[in-house]
Amino acid sequence: MSARPSVFVTRRIPAVGLDRIVAACEAEVWPEQLPPPYELIRKKIANCDGLVSLLTDRVDENLLDAAPRLKVVSNFAVGFNNVDVPAATARGIAVGNTPGALTDATADLAFALLLAAARRVPESVIDARAGKWKTWEPLGYLGQDLHGKTLGIVGMGRIGYALAKRGHGGWDMNVLYHDEIANAKAEADFGARRVDLPELLRESDFVSVHASLTDSSRGLFGAKQFALMKKTAVFINTARGPLVDQKALVAALKSGTIFAAGLDVTEPEPPDAADELLRLPNCVVAPHIASATFSTRNGMAEICADNLIAGVTGKPLRAWVNPEVGYQRRNNPGTSK
Ligand code: DGY
């Protein structure tokens, strides 16, 4: 039997991380474009020390129980709502994620969606391609200005801060935010004002979501919240689809309760090809690409590899979601400092 740790990697990740994983471990890498089925992951990790998972892989109690040797789950994402962290912690399994690496790329994409939705870019491009561009129209494709408007950020963490920086620095936007925790730096740097959610929704011209998906944030945006927003408001979600009641969003977009939306995340992903959401002229939907730049995905791969290799060798993770696992770590008593 090999002395090297065994790991299962549920998708090919950039070589800068994968090559190191393959060099340090007995690694099996799922080669397909689509995720391995849940039952297959269960089988594959039966004798594994480490698992690299993606946000499309459900890592729950039942899965963890199939892997008595597992020491680490290294999630190739900053979000880890796909991993049952308390269940991992209870089993002494370390969980890692990739914070920081994708902050700017995600804020950029949120802003790209914001501009695209506010200025009706996809709708007008589709019309131009379809030969519907007949002349320059004084009343055609009128959208919303950004300059000097109010940007409401729900979740003022790293990505929320990076979006505030763009909006305040580039477009002189006033920044409101809603978060359980005050962000003194955002307040000092951008004059951001912390308000409750209804106030943020009532006052903002643009509402962008950067909250984690938890049991309490699931369905945070529904009919009631959209009704509070301005008719001219643009709603952006680059966080997680289930934060939003999608039926309520579709209704709000169709009825003119809000002006437009830009989404990088949906529920489910992908939406059914026949889903109305994909057909609405005032809704821009991207296929969860916020972190999809070469250098960002490389950065994520490096952190992911660091987390995995640290986890299988009993060292502290570079980005450790459950550091409280500490000394109780599976098969590595006392190795975590
Ligand atoms: C994440 O990392 O959580 C993003 O959703 C994908 O990069």
Report on the structure:
With 337 residues, this protein is an alpha/beta fold. It contains twelve helices and twelve strands. The protein has helices at residues 15-24, 38-44, 61-64, 85-90, 103-118, 121-129, 158-171, 184-190, 197-203, 223-228, 246-255, 294-312, and strands spanning 6-9, 26-29, 50-53, 72-75, 94-96, 150-154, 174-178, 193-194, 206-209, 234-237, 260-263, 283-285. Helix 4 links the parallel strand 4 and strand 5 (94-96). Helix 1 (15-24) packs parallel to helix 12 (294-312) and helix 5 (103-118) crosses helix 7. The structure holds (2R)-2,3-dihydroxypropanoic acid. (2R)-2,3-dihydroxypropanoic acid binds next to loops.
Short description:
With 337 residues, the chain is an alpha/beta fold.
Descriptors for this entry?
7-stranded parallel beta sheet; 12 strands; globular; 337 residues; single chain; disordered C terminus; binds (2R)-2,3-dihydroxypropanoic acid; alpha/beta
Percent of residues in helices comes to: 25-40%
Instruction: List unreliable stretches of 5+ residues.
Output: 333-337
Question: Roughly how many Å is the radius of gyration?
Answer: 22 Å
Secondary structure: number of strands: 12
**Total count of helical runs of at least 4 residues:** 12
